[in-house]
Design brief:
Layout lengths: L1 E2 L6 E2 L4 E4 L3 E2 L3 E4 L2 E4 L3 E6 L2 E6 L11 E9 L4 E4 L6 E3 L25 E8 L7 E3 L6 E3 L3 E4 L5 H5 L4 H10 L2 E4 L4 E5 L3 H17 L5 H10 L1
Parallel strand pairs: 4-8, 11-13
Antiparallel strand pairs: 1-3, 2-7, 3-6, 5-6, 7-8, 9-10, 9-12, 10-11, 12-13, 12-14, 15-17, 16-17
Length: about 220
């Protein structure tokens, strides 16, 4: 067994990453005895699993992900949600309210209407069926006011930081409420436009410099300026 990279090295498609009993993860493929990168990104070894976190790429839903989306249609029995993915999502009344709704009498628009922004969790998705969402868990539901910022989904882990270190620092230093969607959509709400603007600038710098070290200190300095 042998590795041909150091963790967080930038790799390109077709580059040999490892040989031997390693297992291919996201952004990689096996050919013969070797594991190769299929995207441009940062290579990582997690135990025996080799993966590459892509610099670019559309969000692919995954069960358990928290996402931020916008209601684009309301039917008699469901809402259709744009989650900034090739796959639009559906949400059914059973995944919204504990109370059993009478679909012949209750207008779903009273709960969520077209244009509403929601934070929701993906219940199920297997690429052959539409992603299904829920808002029944704590912290989920309609978002009021604030700003929506879009960034590459692959940069979301860097925004969060190890054990939430980056995002918790930004919240503390700016006093803003921040909700992060794994689909690359971030909601920010602060007491002033200046506070919100500081968060937006911080997010844009994280997106540009996600692959660099010492980023947390630079973001702190940016916020204090």
């Amino acid at each position: 067994m042998s590795l041909h990279f150091k963790n967080r090295d930038i790799v390109v498609p077709g580059e040999l990453l490892a040989e031997g009993e390693y297992k291919p993860g996201e952004g990689t493929f096996r050919e013969g005895n070797g594991i190769y990168s299929s995207v441009v990104g940062l290579a990582e070894a997690k135990g025996k699993v080799i993966q590459v976190v892509a610099f670019e790429g559309a969000y692919i839903p995954k069960a358990g992900d928290v996402v931020i989306g916008k209601v684009i249609d309301v039917k008699m029995t469901s809402w259709r949600i744009d989650i900034k993915s090739p796959y639009q999502a559906l949400m059914h009344p059973i995944n919204v309210s504990e109370r059993r709704l009478d679909l012949l009498k209750d207008d779903l628009r009273r709960l969520f209407d077209v244009g509403d922004t929601l934070v929701a969790k993906i219940v199920s998705f297997d690429r052959t069926r539409t992603p299904v969402l829920t808002t029944k868990e704590r912290g989920l539901g309609k978002l009021q006011g604030g700003y929506l910022i879009e960034m590459l989904p692959t940069k979301i882990p860097r925004l969060i930081g190890r054990k939430g270190s980056m995002i918790n620092m930004i919240k503390k230093e700016t006093g803003c409420q921040i909700v992060i969607g794994q689909n690359g959509v971030v909601w920010v709400s602060g007491k002033s436009f200046e506070d919100e603007e500081r968060v937006i600038k911080a997010i844009r710098q994280i997106e540009r410099e996600a692959h660099t070290s010492g980023l947390t200190d630079r973001i702190r300095d940016l916020i204090h300026k």
